[in-house]
Amino acid sequence: MSDNLRSKPWRKSEYLGDKTTSFEQKEVIRQRLKDNIINYKPLHELMPLHHTFPRVNILLFGAIGSGKSSVFNTISSVFKGKIFDIAPVGRSTSSISTKLTKFQVMYGGIAEQLRLTIWDTRGIDETHLMTSQTMKILLEGKLPDRYPLDPSSEVHLDSPGINTAPTLCDVVHCVSIIVDASTIDDMDDDIYQNIREMQTVMISSDVPYVIMLTNIDKICELTKADTTNAYKSVRIRDAVAKVAKKFGVVQTAVFFMKCYEEETFLDVNVDITALLALSGILHNCETYLHNFYETVIELSSAQSSVEEDNKTLKAEIAKLKGKINVYTNQYNEKSIERTKLKKAMEEKVGYGEKMLKIMEYGKMKIQASFIETEIVALRVKRDRLKMECTDLLNSPDL
Ligand SMILES: Nc1nc2c(ncn2[C@@H]2O[C@H](COP(=O)(O)OP(=O)(O)O)[C@@H](O)[C@H]2O)c(=O)[nH]1
Ligand SMILES: [Mg+2]
Fold first, then answer.
1. pLDDT, tens digit, for every residue of 195-207?
2. Which of 235, 259, 291 is the last residue of a domain?
3. Atom of ligand 1 nearest to the CA of 95
4. pTM (predicted TM-score)
5. Does residue 166 sit in the same domain as residue 229?
């Protein structure tokens, strides 16, 4: 395969234009892509006002060593703004992550989380292929975080921690099948057949899946030098075409990224490529939720209305505070006026005019106290909502 770049990207992206992008422009693109995902709310455009579905669940599935944990670590690093390895990454053929781990992606400090969860699994090898039953249970969201997952052995549904009544919030909304781009041709046949078999389980469970190519830096020097070159690289284009054919998917269902392995600093090109791939996965999660629209609405309302109402109340309070400032100023002006009037009265100047001013002042005073009452009522309402929020956050269902 030839190693060269096309003059125009073989895959169009609204972010990466045809022309060479400067470093400064790339910084802006990275921020825009990050902001889009930070502000991502599942099925947001189709939600009634104040409704939010909590988060989407993305399962990483593939052979041991294909780069599943690295995919999570890379995404996590992008949002942390520094290299951040949470999921253990193994260099040997036997994976070190044996438990199903449900990772939250944090951004801008420990308290903020993206509305997505990434599920990392141990992965499969020749002697530990996944059974259809295990995949089905996994997709149904019955297995808790930290469940010791041996893909080849049976899951006992009476084991502790099993969620026997999962809702649409608990299920997998998209599977990302991780494939090492440098070993597409050398993939063990048992592993390949197992992934194909699992694809049929995903189809019968209505869960969309995509292919995620890792190690793209290993098959293209130009991509190694600048990861966004992957969009113009003939080698990456050919690898995408090959893997799409191998797994029976359309080429647009194949995404790719270079994972951080030994770097100590972030690279804007690695970040952009990873963010574009994650955006593609989120798009597939949206498709899933769209198919279960009614249930999504049902599950969204209860949790979010309190949160949204609280925000609205805060905005109302801020507005009222502004109003009260205006009234206070007017009140003070009137007080000064009153003092002057009193003085004028004492000096026995035009009695009718003074009376009018005094009445105006009284009106302002009533208005101000009315606003005060409104503020107190809103505070009570807000505090009640805050308590409701706390109850909800502590509820075992969340
Ligand atoms: N050069 C390079 N190495 C990668 C990439 N993705 C993963 N690796 C390396 O591949 C090895 C296996 O990755 P790991 O995430 O542990 O695979 P897992 O078993 O599927 O979780 C590790 O040494 C990673 O650093 C990549 O995109 N480029
Ligand atoms: Mg791993």
1. 999 999 999 999 9
2. 291
3. 19
4. 0.76
5. yes
